[in-house]
Amino acid sequence: MTIKKLIAGNWKMNGGLAANEALLRALLTGVGQPSADVAVCAPAPYLAQVQGLLAGSPIDWGAQDMSAHEQGAYTGEVSAAMLKDFGCRYAIVGHSERRQYHGETDALVAAKAQRALAAGITPIVCVGETLVEREAEQTEAVVKRQLAAVIHAVAHCTSEIVVAYEPVWAIGTGKTATPEQAQQVHAVLRAQLAAATSHPERVRILYGGSMNAANAASLLAQPDIDGGLIGGASLKAPDFLQIVAAAH
Ligand code: 13P
């Protein structure tokens, strides 16, 4: 049996009370009974609103980041327990925008993944190479290094994580990896997971980077692409719903 796919929206730093409500109501109206798991990852201040609108629906929700610390004097940070209080099922960790603009290291991302699992939250661990790294034929080495740090930290819980392959050059650029390019990297990640867990087939490996209503079906048809992490297209209900419908 193949695993249930996961289509997760990453709203990034977008939205507001009114826009979120309109988007979520449109998603609730159109989502029906999806064959994939569906989630939206909202900015932290809106998680209560999202919980209020989505609780009891087929759509889950999550955060876009979280602290590696449990609690205490970490001004501005949001803990896993706080996310859990607001019903988050997922937390994205190690998004390339966090790695690039906030200096997040492999070790920090691994600590966040570990902390999420300890709190009963599924970390969506992002990995991906930059254009320079791809051109230097470093893609495999980079994604393997990023995932290895997480596997090392979460050890026997490796089968509980979600991985998202997001080539940095494809994020927000309109340049999608071809299905073949994405599948090639996903296969590498699957093999790495297979060496770390007896149930590599349980780990969903999502593709992210300019995934949209037009290209989703061909990406999701690849054997090792188990869903999508959607940025821009997750802010438009019809587009996001079309991607959800393409995942079965
Ligand atoms: P875009 O879909 O806007 O390229 O963003 C992808 C992404 O970074 C999701 O986390």
Automatic annotation (TrEMBL):
It is found in: Cytoplasm. Pathway: Carbohydrate degradation; glycolysis; D-glyceraldehyde 3-phosphate from glycerone phosphate: step 1/1; Carbohydrate metabolism; erythritol degradation; Carbohydrate biosynthesis; gluconeogenesis. It is an enzyme of class 5 (isomerase). Signal peptide: none annotated. Substrate binds at N10, W11, K12, G172, S210, G231, G232. The active site is at H95, E166. Keywords: Cytoplasm, Gluconeogenesis, Glycolysis, Isomerase. Its EC number is 5.3.1.1. Transmembrane segments: none annotated. GO terms for cellular component: cytosol. Belongs to the triosephosphate isomerase family. Homodimer. This is Triosephosphate isomerase. The lineage of its organism: Bacteria, Pseudomonadati, Pseudomonadota, Betaproteobacteria, Burkholderiales.
